[in-house]
Amino acid sequence: DVKVTQSSRYLVKRTGEKVFLECVQDMDHENMFWYRQDPGLGLRLIYFSYDVKMKEKGDIPEGYSVSREKKERFSLILESASTNQTSMYLCASSLVSGPDTIYFGEGSWLTVV
Amino acid sequence: AQSVTQPDIHITVSEGASLELRCNYSYGATPYLFWYVQSPGQGLQLLLKYFSGDTLVQGIKGFEAEFKRSQSSFNLRKPSVHWSDAAEYFCAVGANTNAGKSTFGDGTTLTVKP
Fold it and tell me: What dihedral do alpha carbons A110, B3, B4, B5 form, nearest 10°?
């Protein structure tokens, strides 16, 4: 089974802090994604990566950056956390581009106070 | 631009009853369509997907969905709901370039009554 692991399930951070959300997949997938999930808004794509050190902006990249130094690991960075970034963050991966199956992690609940 | 509408925010059905969750999409070309399920506190799991061919698609956990191009719909069905089906369900539409860039609906929460 494919496993996408988000190491931090619940975080509480202060406004202005730098926040790192880590995601690791164990199936040598090419693509990795970060989404944000808010009630009534579905999932919105923040960034995705199609290869090591390659990234592309999604629909809502403002206030976020990403890092992919190794194929299995994709990090989401909030340079200066704000209260409107309080949300559930989901990481996902897929083997290849195209209409491939996406595998999701269990999510990271971030509260910014 | 692509978009997805799930008209029902919340649906309640009795255990053993049939289920239909609605999904309407807007997309300029042949869409790639997905249904995902999310249990509380968990990530999303793919139930089924449609790319081409037979418009009736079978998925996991006894779910099926029918693609109707004339109605721009991709409704999810299950003939007999189990208590474990209580969850949130998301419809998504995407391009063939990358399923991860799909547009997701706002979700429908399913409650199952004993």
Answer: 100
Please give the helix or strand (H or E) that residue A64 lies within, else none.
none
Burial classification of residue A61, based on how many CB atoms lie within 10 Å of its CB (0-12 exposed, 13-18 middle, 19 or more buried): middle
Tens of pLDDT along chain B (114 residues)? Answer: 789 999 999 999 999 999 999 999 998 777 889 999 999 888 899 999 998 888 999 999 999 999 999 999 999 999 999 999 999 999 999 866 677 788 899 999 999 999
- Six-digit token pair at B65? 């969905």
Nearest to A99 among B45, B49, B104 (CB): B49
CA distance B96 to chain A (A): 5
Q: Which residues of A are less than 8 Å from B92 in CB distance?
A: 43
